[in-house]
Amino acid sequence: MMRKSLARAGAAAIVLALSTTALAACTPGEGAESGEPTNITMLVLGDKPTNGRLEAMLEKLNVKLEAEANANLDLFYVEWADWQTQYNTQLLSGDDDIDLITTATDWLFAWENAEKGAFLPLSEEMLQEYAPKTWEQVDAEGHWDLTKLDDGQIYFIPEDNFTQYTNHGFFYRGDWATAAGIPDGTITKFEEFTTYFSWVKQNQPEAYPWDVSGAKDAALIGYLQGHTDGQTIQQISAGNYYPFQTTESDPYTVTSWYMEGDELLEAAELAKEWNEIGVWREDALNYDGDTREEFYAGLSGADQHHTQTFIGSIVDNMTKKQPGSDPKFFYFGQENGNFFNDILTHGAMAVNATSKSPEKALEVYDIIRNDEEAYRLLNWGIEGTDYVITEDGKLGFPEGYDSSTDALGSNFWAGRMDDFELDRVTDAPNKQEIYDELAAAAKDYEYSTLVVNKDLIDPTLAAMGGVLSEYIPQLQYGKFDDPAAAIAEMRQKLEDAGYEDARTAIQTDMDAWADERGLK
Amino acid sequence: MVTQTSVGRHEALPTGSGKAVPTKSRKPLLRRIGDNRTLLLMCLPALAFFIVFSYAPLPGAWIAFTNFNYRDGIFGSPFVGFRNFEFLIKSGQLWLLTKNTILYNVAFIILGNILQIALAIMLNEIRSKYFKKISQAVMFLPYFISVVLIGVIAFNLLNYDTGALNALIQQTGGDPIKIYSIAGAWPIIIIICHLWQSTGYGSIVYFAAIMGIDNSLFEAAAIDGASAWQRIRYVILPSLKPTFIILLLFSLGGIMKGNFGLFWNLVGNNAALFQTTDIIETSVYRMIISQNNFTSSTAVGLYQSLFGFALVMLCNWIVRRINEDYALF
Amino acid sequence: MTATETAPIRTTPPSAAAARPHDARRRRRHRPEPFTIASYLGVGAFGLVCLIPFWMVIAGSLTAESVLSQRGYSFWPDPFSVDAYATIFAGSRVWLSYGATIFITVVGTAIAVASTSGIAWVIARGLPWLSKPLAVFTYIPMLFTGGLVPMYILITQVLQLRNSWFAVILPLVIAPFLVFVQVSFFRGTPQEILDAARIDGAGELRVFFQIVLPLSKPVIAVIALFYAVTFWNEWFHALLFISEPAKYPLQLVLQNLITSVANAADLGTTTAAPVYAIRLAMTVITIGPILLAYPFAQRYFVKGLTLGASKG
To answer: Cβ of B152 and A288 within 8 Å?
Structure first.
């Protein structure tokens, strides 16, 4: 009895709470043009800098924004500690103090949050009126389709005019590869790393051939990418893993390289061989050291991350810290051209569904994305104190600048533009070469507009994630005595978890999507 | 509101402890409230906090049965029955996880209480004021060390390539041990880490309880020439019984909930150890880590709560049959 | 201040002990029993076990970053470096965090102890129509919670407590467990004393403040300590509800440091700050002040103040 009445009271409180947020959502933005400038708050990810540089920059930027749009910009940070929880709870709270929200389809739950109603649907008229430059540029390239749910509405603005390659690969040392007898010191096939690693093991007693930490699946994925034509459907994850693929030869049939084919076993056997050589620490899974620093210190023969990381920091650091090391990059899928351009929604900007001034927010966004002066201020800071332009037109830092304490940290990752970007002094000298090479061979990710309804298969995906988290890390580090038996066992458990149901459900969405576009 | 609705139900209950101040049970309610307005006033702040921060959000657990979206809110989102619970069963791990979680907690409860009581009794024997103060402060330390650091320290000691323990073994001519591959070793390691972290801190309650024992009991024991063991057996331990039962009933409520941080930082993704170390929280974390999933985590929380609830009700019932004074309610 | 105040009350029970010096156990000092010696050894050994890893944390916090990230922790800081502490204390941030943490701890503990004592006494009174329902009412929140979502909406939307330290304090203000710990101590208050006071015409409040509370100093010290430690250690609510770095409590700063090591690596941003040493130094810094709370609380753990927690 007591509990019941309390439950009712509690329910009433919550209903009240939710309805107030809903009401707030319906109130139209008002008082935009009159008098006081409107405050626009943009949610970004990262640790809020405390060195005062951000505030100094915003002060300058806001002079401009006030003059042009009668608005001020402020940043709201979701810091890295437990960021997934923070980000998603922040969005669900419907906090009407936030106007612009940094999002992404591959790592910031853009589709999920759009479906759940966190983002304001953006009508074409609204975009045309308040963010005309952005509208035009995205529209000219036909990229609005990448941001629509199946209701046909636009939910966010893609960072579609900014080149970055976040495809993965190995960084290794050309000097050691040459010494290992690899022609030209350049590795061209995934298996060649066996030669390289063995040489490092025998000749560089201080170093691990590849000091790696935690539950990565790179060794398996790198092999699978280079030895199949499988293309991962990035929208569907199970725990930490991405178990659904299509193949280039049969691009509209959903399959899984964890379930089909012998390549997973080959990859696992190679991993086992590497484990026996001693490529990584025996306890790599539990190790949490900074392996990149180890690489810089000459204590690791390889490191693994994005192309972008190689260009932006590996080359510069290795040249300074390990002179003559001749850092090189092998990207996964290099041998068979099975790798992708970045999806265009790796960064995107959404307008908060409860924003009090969505129109103003779009106006501000249009300026920081398309006005060069505003763009430089927001991304780089104040010229002379935060950055300098060198004589050869590169972006550099002033004398005595220490990137660990002096960073601007504005973290605007949802509207950068190639047109305004400059080469950086720390960039790899062969950056353009690498870009050209990648651009020539990389495939476009075809399924950006595929929206998979996960409601029904979420439990299955979670269960599959549980199975994969049990087997993949151990396969990756070659810890099973009999990889074939382990893989058979894993496949059986994935079947039991409902793999076939999930695959069928995704296939249905895929068929509908392909039909609609006349692809099949 | 609370008291009004609850009176009818509880009026019929037998009068509780012998110490209860007799109340005239047929008095009209308003009169009774009026008579006890001071008492009601005294518990008002606590009631307010409970109602606002514990009871008001409770109905929100309903999202465990919905396909939650922000637009429709908690009670407007589509009802999906038990779908958010399905993944626990589909993973095929539910039994193992439940078993591991309970066994670890049983070990924590039993060993934890034994150690805490032993430590409290020993501390009580210490005469030197400074020794006592310093040692107690030192025992506090582990409680403040982040589990992340405990994980790092454990790795530093135990890993195969560079670990201190294996270095020692090799110095003495032995073969290094791959501790991070031996599933059987980890229950012991985890239990040791847990006890290391919580014993000093947890012993305070027992220590304070011993401090509260009437001196005359000790003196009577001394006059009778009781040995140290007899003093413990016949004076201290009986006095600690109510404290122990409260602690027990509270730990039972959480028997399905694990010390996630400790397990995660010690074991992480090392699947070779899961057979003996995977508990509900760690497994669920791995399953829904990349999903924007409030509903599944609430579902798991409900599963754990209901299990704990049933267990506590059972144990409380047993305790009440033995000695009503010790029961929680 | 403790023993003398309560001495008059202790004369009431018809116990032989009342006439004697209350600290009789100390008189046995001349004849140390084997068990006493064993106790010294046991406590000493356990103390060392607790101290050694902590020493490693201190040593690590004073070790140069480069060595720390490669060789791990050791017993002696070599090469010695105070860089981590210098970095932490360089800005005003850590002082602000101290301020936040102290506010949360002091205000939180005060509110918590007051409200816990109030409800605990009412439960301990054993009124059948009130105490049992209250006990159930107190226990349920221990088992069931609404989960993250409703709590988040409650704090941010209904109560509008975003960026307020009360968003960290209020949800933790009552721990059911500590209510019951206190109830069990209150129940040990001798009935004769209470009856005598009531016959003298003392009201509920007077009985509570002048008799029950003074007799309960040890348990109040215990729960105050527990609450203080809880508030001191709290970071999750701060993480969710406090977004202005100037208002971060210490533990959140520490948590951010710890996780930014992993995240920085994952996201390819480079951090050249001495993160490993800093997280150790920060651990040392966050532990310091709360350790002082223990001796403070300990002053009240004086025996003879309550007359038996047990009825058994």
So the answer is: yes
Residue B302 in any domain: the answer is: no
Q: Write out residues 61-80 of A within 8 Å (CB-CB) of C.
A: 76-77, 79-80
Report for A27-36, A200-209, C131-140: range of highest mean pLDDT: A200-209
Residues of C in contact with A405 (CB under 8 A): 273
How far apart are alpha carbons C258 and A25 in whole angstroms? 37
pLDDT of residue A33: 52
Clarify whether residues C145 and C174 are in a common domain: yes
Tokens of C5: 């105040």
Per-residue pLDDT tens over the stretch C247-296: 999 888 887 777 665 554 444 444 445 567 877 888 888 887 887 777 77
Q: Which of A7, C146, C153, C144 is nearest to B58 (CA)?
A: C146
List the CATH code of the domain at A38-164+344-406.
Answer: 3.40.190.10
* pLDDT given at position B112: 96
Tell me how many domains chain C contains: 2
Q: Are β-strands A100-103 and A38-45 bridged in parallel, bridged antiparallel, or unpaired?
A: parallel
Q: Are residues C67 and C145 in the same domain?
A: no
Total of domains in chain B: 2
- Condensed to tens digits (0 to 9), the pLDDT of residues C194-240 reads 888 888 888 888 888 888 888 888 788 888 988 998 999 888 889 88
* Selection from A271, A331, A281 nearest residue A301 by Cα: A281
Residues B257 and B168 in one domain: yes
The model's pLDDT over A19-59, given as tens digits with 9 standing for 90+, comes to 444 434 444 444 445 578 999 999 999 888 878 899 999 99
Q: Is B320 on the interface with C (CB under 8 A)?
A: no
Kindly identify which residue of chain B lies nearest to residue C44, measuring between CA atoms: B135
SS3 state of residue B165: helix
Domain that holds residue B48: 4-76
Instruction: Note whether A93 contacts C152, CB cutoff 8 Å.
Output: yes
Across the interface, whether the CB atoms of C54 and B19 are under 8 A apart is answered no
CB B58 to CB A7 under 8 A? yes
pLDDT of A186-202, one tens digit each?
999 999 999 999 999 99
Inter-residue contact A442 to B275 (CB < 8 Å): no
pLDDT of residue B2: 31
For C137, the domain range is 83-310
The distance from CA C172 to its chain's CA centroid, rounded to whole angstroms, is 12
Residue C172 lies in a domain: yes
Within a domain: residue B275?
Answer: yes
Question: Most B CBs within 10 Å: which of A5, A119, A454, A469, as the mutation test of the B interface?
Answer: A469
CA gap C99, C101 in Å, rounded: 6
Asked whether residue B115 falls in the same domain as residue B237, the answer is yes
CA distance A293 to A316: 13
CA-angle at A180, arms to A188 and A270, nearest 5°:
60
Regarding whether C50 and C93 lie in a shared domain, the answer is no
Q: Which residue of B has its CA nearest to A472?
A: B271
CB contact under 8 A, B288 and A465: yes
Residues in B 132-151 with any Cβ partner in C closer than 8 A: 133-146, 148-150
Residue C51 and residue C149 in one domain: no
Token pair, residue C27, equals 């008189």
CATH number at residue B125: 1.10.3720.10
* A42 contacts in chain C (CB < 8 Å): none
Of A180-194, A491-505, B206-220, the range with the lowest mean pLDDT is B206-220
Say how far apart CA A14 and CA A11 lie, in whole Å.
5
Beta strands A245-247 and A230-232 are antiparallel
**A208-212, A511-515, C31-35, C229-233: least confident range:** C31-35
Burial class (CB in 10 A: 0-12, 13-18, 19+), A126: middle
Domain annotation covers residue B205: yes
Task: Give, as one character, the DSSP assignment of residue A392.
Answer: T
